[in-house]
Amino acid sequence: MGAVPQAPRPRVTARARDLRFDAGSLSLNLVATVGRRPVGPVERMGDAERLAAWCRGVGLTPAPGYEAEALLRSLHALRDAAYDIASSLLDGDRPSAASVELVNGLAACEPPAVRLELTQTGVRAAPGSGLLTEDALLSVVARDLVELVSDASRRERLTSCASDVCRMLFLNPDSGRARRWCSMRRCGNNAKAAAHRRRRAATAEG
Q1: CA-closest candidate to residue 170, choices 86, 59, 54
Q2: What is the reported pTM?
Q3: What is the pLDDT of residue 35?
Q4: pLDDT tens digits for 171-204?
Q5: Which residues lie closer than 8 Å to 81 by C-beta, 6 or more apart?
Q6: For a Cys-Cys bond, which of 62, 125, 142, 144 suits 107, CB 3.0-4.6 Å?
Q7: At what angle do helices 97-107 and 134-150 cross, to 10 degrees?
Q8: CB-hemisphere CA count at 13 Å for 98?
Q9: Based on the number of CB atoms within 10 Å of its own CB, is 97 exposed (0-12), middle (13-18) or buried (19 or more)?
């Protein structure tokens, strides 16, 4: 028998490599730095520049002098563990013990508390109080995942994009209509366009 023809892989565009900050939680935004997991993973945070852009996007500020490559490797490992845990939660499966151990180990570090200082005109965050060491930054992300898993209402809102190409994990809003797509401007519009093409093709064949 001949080989079964494979469906063409979607073209990897600049948009497919865009960082996403709309997953609904810090840890899921980290998971979203890999796109198109089911059909061909697209790395969205693969170098120091993209790491810095992601940190800015989620509001985390590494302390000066951090080693970008080391932090990137650590975040990639945490990302894999977070995906394993979150997707297992969604599918009703059991995550690996290694993933749980990694998240617990990273979450054990106590992130520094942001401090306030008095000024002549009022109060402000003390300079440098929002800077995070590598361990503290990883802990903030790991603790977000622990909080997500520990919160029944957030667990119930965890879902994945209906697009077979995307399958991005995200949290539905806590009120209003549940989302089917990660974004109507992205996967929602793509699905509508594909449905329109199918209807046109069916009409032409008819």
Answers
A1: 86
A2: 0.85
A3: 95
A4: 998 887 888 889 877 786 765 655 545 556 556 6
A5: 95, 98, 99, 100, 102, 103
A6: 142
A7: 120
A8: 7
A9: exposed
- Report in angstroms the alpha-carbon separations of 142 from 66, 73, 86: 19, 15, 12
Strand duo 158-160 + 61-62: pairing: unpaired
Region for residue 17 given its phi and psi (left: phi exceeds 0; alpha: psi -120 to 50; beta: otherwise): alpha
pLDDT digits (tens, 9 = 90+) for 120-146: 999 998 888 889 999 999 999 999 999
d(CA 178, CA 148) in angstroms, rounded, equals: 18
For residue range 91-131, list pLDDT tens digits in order: 999 999 999 999 999 999 998 888 899 999 999 988 888 89
